[in-house]
Amino acid sequence: MRNILAVCAKELYTYFVSPIAYFVCFVFTAISGFLFSIVLIAASRNGATGAVVMETIFGNLAIILLFFTPVLTMKLFAEERKSGTIELLLTSSITDGEVVLGKFLASWTLLFIMLALTLLFPFLVQRFGHLDSGALLSGYLGVILIGSSFLALGLLMSSMCKNQLIAALTSFGILITLWVIGSLSARYGAIGKFLSYLSLLEHYYDFTRGVILLKDVSYHVSFTGVCLFATFKSIESSKWR
Question: 85 exposed, middle or buried (CB, 10 Å; 0-12, 13-18, 19+)?
């Protein structure tokens, strides 16, 4: 655990010693705040309830993270591959698994900070009516779970690329595919249902409505675990190249 925290601390230092973390947090907050204001204006005109407003906001947050998480993960391994420091890291006393978990924990911590900046939104929505705390917890749990899935896939792509931009674009392309693939379920029968199960979107929107289903939690936990395991194998195989 000590090595994992050491890797995490090193990556967080790298995030905040450069403009990356500040830029991402600022732009994320600016975009989410702008969309939040639009939702509030529309809600005030249409008489929408606070629950409907927060459901829309949680949906917006997931879409925004779809664009931002590849930026958070693109450099984690790709930059070290390009600079050649990956060999030094992998030949140290730290295991490959600890490296993977440490880097993932660092990106997850930054994600958590970004989401913490949105905690003002529920307080402002109170003017539209009482908000159920269970629904709020469900919504934020969903955002954290789907964000973790995004980060884990981005980390996997970064471990397979030497170029940060390619890692980010590849991650974004796969995430977009997994996001919209559920729309095929109504057209292709049994295959469509299988594709729908793979869809990230199909396992997210119940959280925004205040519903926590075991199958949705299991999907995101499993997706994250599989991507982290694949990242571990990618890093392990690089020693033999």
Answer: exposed
Yes or no: say if 212 and 206 are a contact pair by the CB < 8 Å rule: yes
For residue 31, give both structure tokens: 């975009």
DSSP string for residues in the chain:
-HHHHHHHHHHHHHHHHSHHHHHHHHHHHHHHHHHHHHHHHHHHHHT--HHHHHHHHHHHHHHHHHHHHHHHHTTTTHHHHHHTHHHHHHTSSS-HHHHHHHHHHHHHHHHHHHHHTTTHHHHHHGGGSPPPHHHHHHHHHHHHHHHHHHHHHHHHHHHH-S-HHHHHHHHHHHHHHHHHGGGGTTTSHHHHHHHHHH-TGGGTHHHHTT---HHHHHHHHHHHHHHHHHHHHHHHHHTT-
Q: Give mean pLDDT in consecutive 10-residue pieces for the chain, a chain of 241 residues.
A: 85 85 90 89 74 85 91 81 63 77 92 91 76 84 94 91 87 89 64 75 86 90 94 77 55
Q: Which amino acid is at 144?
A: I
Start-to-end C-alpha separation, the chain: 29
Model pTM score: 0.89
